[in-house]
Known about the structure:
single chain; alpha+beta; four-stranded antiparallel sheet; 2 helices; 19% helix
Amino acid sequence: xxxxxxxxxxxxxxxxxxxxxxxxxxxxxxxxxxxxxxxxxxxxxxxxxxxxxxxxxxxxxxxxxxxxxxxxxxxxxxxxxxxxxxxxxxxxxxxxxxxxxxxxxxxxxxxxxxxxxxxxxxxxxxxxxxxxxx
Length: 134
C-alpha cells in the first residue's frame, strides 16, 4: 500500500514516494493532498521519523473517539503541514498546508470531517499499513 484516503466530508490523501523509501522500509516524505469542494492542495512534506508522530496523532484521536476537551494538534517537522482536531460529535480536523518556496508561496486551509468510531478506526488502520516498516 502506497496511498490512503481518509474522510468523507473532505478527504486527506497520504501517498508515499516509492522511490524515496529508506532501506528499512520507512519514508521521510509524504505527498499530502487535501480535497474539499472547490479546493485541492498538495505538498511534499518531510519528516525524519518515518511519520510515527502522524500515526500517533491519529491513534490518539481513535483512543478518545467519544470526545475530548480542547484541541489535539500535529505539526510536521518543517511546520508546512499542521492539523488541529476538535470533537463535537464528529471529529473535525482543521488542516493547514503551506509552501514557502519563492516565487509563489501559498497556504491552503480547510476542515476535514470524520465520523468517530469505525471511520476513525479505518483511518488509523490505513495509516498504520501505509507507514509501518516493511
